[in-house]
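Notes continue from the previous slide.

Worked example: a multi-chain complex. Inputs as given:
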Amino acid sequence: MNIFRLAGDMTHLMSVLVLLLKIHTIKSCAGISLKTQELYALVFATRYLDIFTDFISVYNTIMKLIFLGSSFSIVWYMRRHKLVRRSYDKEQDTFRHFFLVLPCLLLALVMNEKFTFKEVMWAFSLYLEAVAILPQLVLLQRTKNIDNLTGQYVFLLGAYRAFYIFNWIYRYFTEPHYVHWITWISGLVQTLLYADFFYYYFNSWKNNVKLHLPA
Amino acid sequence: PQNNDKKDEL
């Protein structure tokens, strides 16, 4: 465990918890894409298939449980909670899961480290995580005005991505045989998707104005 | 060599 990895995990954890706390306290999910949240729940469910079979560390197991629990809780709130569900921008959040899930699944069947169910699902989860933010970014573009918490949520997710890249670079130079093309390329794609959002986020922060995205 | 350490990341 290096400092970049820890910082990445912590910002990732904060992003999910900030969102869950927001939904729980203000009983609103305005501006949040249910499609993205469902995709993240699917990402965690398919990546952590090893949770009960391979023990890595207490830290690892606890983090996995928190990510699974919080992502499914968010989906539950947005779909089932009678107040929260009313604030959901259903008409604006029109991105189809199918268009992201199917290509990722096909890619995982072709590009994987081993052709076993667990390995294919693991590769699928990485490909899907890379693009799962797209429905959220589309929703941000459409609704234009972004409240602070939604902005912070995407900002924390972006920070998590950046720290993970530093973590890979660090591990590449410090650990022998640490080469993971699937993780790196999908991680890089994912980070690039945030670059555009970050550009506007920093501009609005620098000029001290409310974040607005161009059409 | 085969890596077994990849799944220590979240």
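Summary box: Residues 3-202 of chain A form one domain. Helices of chain A lie at 3-26, 34-47, 58-80, 97-110, 117-131, 134-143, 148-174, 181-206.
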